Amino acid sequence: MPNEPQLEFILACKDLEAPGRHRKLSTAVQISVIQPGEESVTRYSSTETVEGTRDPLFLTGVIFPSEYPIFEETTIKLAMYDVKDPSFCCLQESQYYTGEE
Fold this sequence. Notes:
Oligomer: single chain
Number of strands: 8
Largest sheet: 6 strands, antiparallel
């Protein structure tokens, strides 16, 4: 079917680190794309913010429609951060995935 998504992420996390002992997280995930032959990162989408838990379940999935150019060499970057302190990344490192045709 031509309108089916080519790629879809449903996101959930467990046991995230908080920036301080007495502060609750306000977590979101930013999705960026690096296309083959390009060095720049393009922000694609982000999830809603989930408040007050170290185990967020994001109700907003991320869909790449079938017409979006995803190639085997495409890199998708997922970066989780605290929206109240964007410099604080809830993950030790960003996660990268390569697309498949």
